[in-house]
Design goal:
It is an enzyme of class 7 (translocase). Sodium pump that utilizes the energy of pyrophosphate hydrolysis as the driving force for Na(+) movement across the membrane. Belongs to the H(+)-translocating pyrophosphatase (TC 3.A.10) family. K(+)-stimulated subfamily. Homodimer. Its cofactor is Mg(2+). This protein is mostly helical. It has one domain (about 5-305, about 315-710). The protein has 20 helices and 6 strands. The strands form 3 sheets. A two-stranded antiparallel sheet has the order 1-2. Strand 5 and strand 6 (about 735-750) form a beta hairpin. Helix 11 (about 385-390) runs antiparallel to helix 12 (about 395-410). It starts with a helix and ends with a strand.
Length: about 750
């Protein structure tokens, strides 16, 4: 064994450290760019202050939750179970939970902090050229991408090293149980990350869409002023929302997904029978190594995202970076698998080879790529789905809504078929470990995916600042070009996130089944079938609560904007400044208040069902939540994205029945209504689905040792036959079998 093999476990956190160092370099570069004139800096300051006010209010509420949850987890870690059904946990799980929560919040904060600096600098850069504007906005996005991936790998890798040395004694007869305990405690890190992600995503989504809907309904529809007009009292809250929802929320979201995917693969990896050079730990280390390699190659690929001329395609530049990161990761994964894994392994009786694992990784990369391409087709301007909504806008608001709903529902077909094929193929190659490592392969390029995704809200804010500052037309045209691409990248990012959530949840589900002691879920049992139906219902009530929360907050925003237009004379003539801070306060208070109930559903329901009805019923619940949640997430995100780009298509003009229609026309007004309906779909409830299904699976995994099937609670059984053989020797010294007797038929409970 060479030096690298002996110390691989210590090299993994170094990948994360590299990501954080590059993030710091990119952040410093963005900060050094020009921030424009005094008016631009003042507007950017309003946005930054509003975003920080929201985060402080959110963190204050979440700190109470984190403390209470940490105490409960510490108590649960003191339980040891019985000799027949031991619980492999420790009070240290509370520490892992706290670290995961802090890192998740930090990931969102770092991305949002640089986004509120990059927005105004992108606006200033757009006064020079489109190429410079892309450079500033994308580098701002890479801060989020590299920061999230770097924190995840550094945090997870370092914590694993500490827990491993705390619990595992190599060579001990109990080393297998000790490793199981290590990973069970490590699951607390993922629980903390996903918990914060859910509240950040739901709270940020409610904030941004309450402001957006209020600004649109009163500003654009009633007052007839542009979306980001400085006279609109809700415009600052709207731009703040882009940061707290699409930057901080998305950052925490993908941080949680990244960690959950690696963890699920590690949980299944410790079950694998593997004769390798790492003491049987190669399948556990592989997902962390692939994540680290993916981060490095995302950094390399980011250097190729650039354009030279005004006519160059921004989308093509981003695609080059994305494809390069995927291809490099795919190549490196081959050598990592061949170097790390033994030729043959097995899990739960399923035998597979190292090449089978590599094929599963390729399937994961392919599934993520196809999901992004399909999402882009259904949401990008110029394609049939968006054009169909545009054409239906000509006959009014109702037909626009019908068209958007139809596109959203249709858009679930191809993604589900791709997911189904990916699950089947990855399982065929390497069992449930194949499904998990496919998800890890898909998430390996998260740094690049998130950089592209975070670029969108930065460009959106840049356009808003350009509009509010009254900059020349060509500046707004450049920011609009970036914003239009950003809308598509945001939609594809959500498609990527929901695909990763589906594979990750299935892997977490398999891990839950192993730890809880169930081998199958029998839907012929009435209680299991009931759990399946209840699970299918949860994404609907979750979505209802999120959308209703946006509606209530938007109503308050509309009333406030109308009040200011009415009671503050001179706003429309630019003689008086609107009270932006009051609209910011409305969104902040509403989002903090309204995010609690949806979050409680995800955390409490698995605990109630698991402890009341047992692991098999909880398994039925998880199956229902996963299938329903994936469908709802795809439908809502794609419908909202298509409505949004249908509305934006009118800015350059669209041909409807032989006539060009522009902003302000009746079809455009119908498209604004559709976009308003789609806003909470695509930015609140839709993207929250992937966190919902993962968080419920992680909670179930955490409680699995406490509800596991044991001797006192028999579940599935197997029959073990013990055979007694009597033998003797004949006159020539040969062994002769005299009797074969069946001694016992013993029922063994798992």
């Amino acid at each position: 064994m060479n030096f690298l093999q002996q110390n691989l476990i210590y090299f993994i956190p170094l990948f994360g450290l590299v990501g954080i160092l590059v993030m710091a370099f990119q952040s410093a570069w963005v900060t050094r760019q020009e921030a424009g004139d005094k008016n631009m800096s003042e507007l950017a300051g309003y946005i930054a202050d509003g975003a920080m006010a929201f985060l402080k209010a959110e963190w204050k509420v979440l700190s109470y939750f984190v403390i209470i949850a940490g105490i409960l987890l510490a108590w649960s870690g003191t339980l040891t179970g019985s000799a027949a059904n031991p619980i492999h946990s420790s009070p240290i799980i509370a520490v892992a939970f706290l670290i995961g929560a802090v890192f998740s919040a930090l990931a969102g904060y770092l991305g949002m902090r640089i986004a509120t600096k990059a927005n105004v600098r992108t606006t200033q850069a757009a006064r020079t050229s489109l190429a410079q504007a892309l450079k500033v906005s994308f580098r701002g996005g890479t801060v989020m991408g590299f920061g999230v991936a770097g924190l995840a790998i550094l945090g997870l890798g370092t914590l694993f090293i500490i827990l491993y040395h705390t619990f595992v004694h190599p060579g001990s007869p109990e080393s297998s149980a000790e490793l199981k305990k290590t990973i069970e405690v490590l699951a607390g890190f993922s629980l903390g990350a996903e918990s914060i992600a859910l509240f950040a995503r739901v709270g940020g989504g409610i904030y941004t869409k309450a402001a957006d809907v209020g600004a649109d309904l009163v500003g654009k529809v009633e007052a007839g002023i542009p979306e980001d007009d400085v006279r609109n009292p809700a415009t600052i809250a709207d731009n703040v929302g882009d940061n707290v929802g699409d930057v901080a929320g998305m950052g925490a979201d993908l941080f949680g997904s990244y960690v959950a995917t690696i963890l699920a693969t590690m949980v299944l990896g410790q079950e694998i029978v593997s004769e390798d050079l790492f003491g049987g730990m190669a399948p556990v280390l592989l997902p962390m190594l692939i994540a680290g390699l993916g981060l490095i190659f995302s950094i390399v690929a980011s250097l190729f995202v650039k354009i030279n001329k005004e006519t160059d395609s921004v989308q093509s530049a981003l695609n080059i970076g994305n494809w390069l990161s995927i291809i490099l990761t795919a190549i490196a994964s081959y050598f990592a698998v061949r170097w790390l894994l033994p030729p043959v392994m097995s899990i739960r009786g399923f035998e597979f080879t190292q090449l089978s694992v590599y094929y599963a990784i390729l399937i994961g990369l392919a599934v993520g790529t196809l999901m992004s391409l399909i999402t882009e087709y259904y949401t990008a301007m110029g394609n049939r789905p968006v054009n169909s909504i545009i054409q239906q806008s000509s006959t009014g608001h109702a037909t626009n809504i019908i068209g958007g709903l139809s596109v959203g529902m249709e858009s679930t077909v191809l993604p589900i078929l791709v997911l189904a094929a990916g699950i089947y193929a990855s399982y065929y190659f390497a069992g449930f470990y194949g499904v998990a490592i496919a998800a890890a392969g898909m998430m390996a390029t998260t740094a690049m995916q998130l950089a592209i995704d975070a670029f969108g809200p930065i460009a959106d804010n840049a356009g808003g600042i350009a509009e509010m500052s009254g900059l020349p037309k060509e500046v707004r045209e450049r920011t609009d070009m970036l914003d239009a691409v950003g809308n598509t990248t945001a939609a594809t990012g959500k498609g990527f996130a929901i695909a990763s959530a589906a594979l990750t949840s299935l892997a977490l589900f398999a891990a839950f089944a192993g730890i809880s002691g169930i081998t199958s879920i029998d839907i012929y049992k009435a209680n299991v079938l009931a759990g399946l139906f209840v699970g299918g219902m949860i994404p609907f009530i979750f979505s209802s609560l999120c959308i209703a929360a946006v509606g209530r907050a938007a109503m308050a925003m509309v009333q406030e904007v109308r009040r200011q237009f009415k009671e503050i004379p001179g706003i429309m003539e630019y003689k008086a400044k609107p009270e932006y801070e009051k609209c910011v306060a409305i969104s902040t208070e509403a989002s903090i208040r309204e995010m609690m109930l949806p979050g409680a559903i995800a955390l409490i329901v698995p605990i109630i069902v698991g402890f009341t009805f047992g692991p098999e019923v909880l398994g039925g619940l998880l199956a229902g939540v996963t299938v329903s949640g994936v469908l709802m997430g795809i439908f809502q995100s794609n419908a909202g994205g298509a409505w949004d780009n249908a509305k934006k298509s009118f800015e350059k003009g669209v041909m409807i029945e032989g006539k060009m229609e522009y902003k302000g026309s009746d079809p455009h007004k119908a498209s604004v209504t559709g976009d308003t309906v789609g806003d909470p779909f695509k930015d609140t409830s839709g993207p929250s689905m992937n966190i919902l299904i993962k968080l419920m699976s992680i909670v179930s995994l955490i409680i699995a040792p406490h509800i596991a099937v044991g001797i006192s609670n028999p579940g599935t059984t197997e029959i073990r036959k013990e055979i007694q053989i009597s033998k003797s020797t004949d006159s020539k010294g040969k062994i002769k079998i005299d009797t074969v007797k069946n001694v016992t038929d013993t029922l063994i409970h798992p």
